[in-house]
Structures are given as C-alpha cells and as structure tokens.
Amino acid sequence: MNKEKFSFSKLDTFNTCPRSYYLTYIKKVEREENVYGFLGSSFHDCLEKLQKKEITIKEAKDKFLNDISTTEIFEMEFPTEKSKKKYIECLMAYLDNYERLPIDNFETEEYFEFEIEGVIMRGYIDLYFIKDNNIYVLDYKTSSKFSKNDLEKKEKQLILYGMYLQEKYPDKNIVYLGFDMCKYFVNKRGTLKTRDTQEESYGNAYVEVKFTEEKKEELVDYIDLIVKHIDICDKEDIRCWSKNINKFFCDNLCSVKKYCN
To answer: What angle do CA 113, 29, 157 make, to 5 degrees?
Structure first.
C-alpha cells in the first residue's frame, strides 16, 4: 500500500501540472501565497464563524476587508483591476445577503483520513449535517462557475467526501452533495449570475453533485491512475515532471512559479 497521504487538491495539482506537484510536494520549495488562495481561505473562515454564530455579518465583512488590505500590503495581485473589483463586489454581496443555515447540529472543517483501494486520502469538509438519517454536504467555492469539463473534475472532491461519510455513518444516507458558488446567485430563470449584476436574486447558486455508484467508481479509477503516474516518475529527475502551460494557472494560482522557468 502506498503510505503517502493524498488530498483531492494534491492529486489535482499533479493533474494540472506535474512540475508544480514536483516542486511543491517532492522538492518542498518555499511556496508563495496567491491572492485567490489567501482570500478564499479568509472567506471560508468567515462563513464557518457565521454558521457557528461566532461573529456577526458586519464583523465578517470587516474581517474580509481587512484581509483584502493585507493582500495589497504584500502585493498579492489580481490579474486586472477589473477582476479584483468584480471578485470583491461579488463576495461582499454574498455576505450582505448571507442567511445562516437554520440548523444547530452540524460539523464544519472536519478533518478526515480514510483508505481507498490502498491509498490514504485526507481532507477537510467545509460543512455537513445529518437530518432524519440523511446526510447533507456543502462545499464553499469562491472561484468562477465551472464549465461542464471542470465540473466533471471538481465533483470528484464531493464524491470523496461522500465516500468518507458513508464509511463513517454506514447506517445513514448521502442525499445531497453540493457546491455553494459564492460569487453567484440564481435568477428567476434559474441561471447562475454574478452577484455584481442588478438582477433580483432568487437564492444561492448551489450546484448539486449526484452521489452514484458510477461516480464513486470514477473517483476510485482517478485516484488509482494519478497515484500510479506519481509513483513511476523519477523523484530525482525534474525532467520526468512535465510542465502543463496554462497562462492563468501559471500567472495567478501556481505557488511555486518562481522556481519554474
């Protein structure tokens, strides 16, 4: 059994760019924080505290604005001023319209480890709760909405959470897995629209992922394939770890870009 522990994001890094994986997890070079990662973590923290009633909406907004100022001090830059304005406006609008889930028994940021076909997977679940023997899972996303191809990749994260919870609670049913696309709302036609528009909101932009046997099998195959590719790459030869050049990822999301020509 491979004793290395993997998270969905770790596997996704290899899938996105093997060179980034090599520098991050094998060479363990010093990583640089990027504006999307920093503010995404800040926003998640705000939502967790709001759900726990530890802060008010005003305090959450003040915290998020303070963290935005921190990114400016440390020169964590957005691609453009327009993208910065839109990102901040949309997430601030989410907080302005925030409605706490009306539940008292729930778990946030639960850490897990469990084994899938000899591979130890781990991670954190943003939020889940159990009601009437049924399990509901939510994952907050501050990114742009997914294309069809992106959703097919990203939904594996929620399937992973579902498989873990199914193992932890074998007597309960996984009935809902969903992304809360925080920069968006649903309009009266059921379309996802960014929150900086003037259309009337009809609720949060939830994107449901069906928890099926087929999707569980796809996740198992995905994990097996990626881990096997990682295992056969020579950890002493950087040439074995190819670069996947994607301008947005390389410029804005890769935390080890300064070590990559």
So the answer is: 30
